[in-house]
Amino acid sequence: EIVLTQSPATLSLSPGERATLSCRASQSVSSYLAWYQQKPGQAPRLLIFDTSNRATAIPARFSGSGSGTDFTLTISSLEPEDFAVYYCQQRSNWPRTFGQGTKVEIK
Amino acid sequence: EVLLLESGGGLVQPGGSLRLSCAASGFTFSTYAMSWVRQAPGKGLQWVSSITSSSGSTYYADSVKGRFTISRDNSKNTLYLQMSRLRAEDTAVYYCAKGGYASFWDIWGQGALVTVSS
User: What contacts B3, CB < 8 A, 6 or more positions away?
Assistant: First the structure.
């Protein structure tokens, strides 16, 4: 099983600041990594797929990068609606696995 | 509008059974793989099971293998998850999601809460 480790667990930032979230895989997932956003009481929303492709209707302030085992989600300038939990997920191997999540909270 | 609507959640005793359904609309259901993903209270996301578009292949997390069965009826645009021998640790919100075989999950339902407790 591929283990995804996200860091940090919590990121405390102010609106307008840049957020950088990390996801490290226990073995290569090639480019088959996605990022999801989840707000309390809501279903997850796909933000980025295949490392760097924005999903439909996702604002340009969200970007993804990386390859192999190290990946990054960057939010260039935080909007109030961006404070949420973010999960990375791989589809390189079965079982599909998620990271444990990074909470982006208002400082 | 693309929609996934889960139903069938509820309270069940340990060792009991429950069947979740997921009604799809707004896209050609029969051409997409589908999946179930769950989230225990206050915890992260866990993939449960996936099925290919024609039901030719199914995949399960080890934690549910032999107890849960995923299926679909493309004539009814509906995905199912038959859960048996339920345990307390199966308590979670179960999400139906579009994709999961050669793609990521781009559409999610609102979730169905399953509580396993005596």
Answer: B23, B24, B25, B26, B109
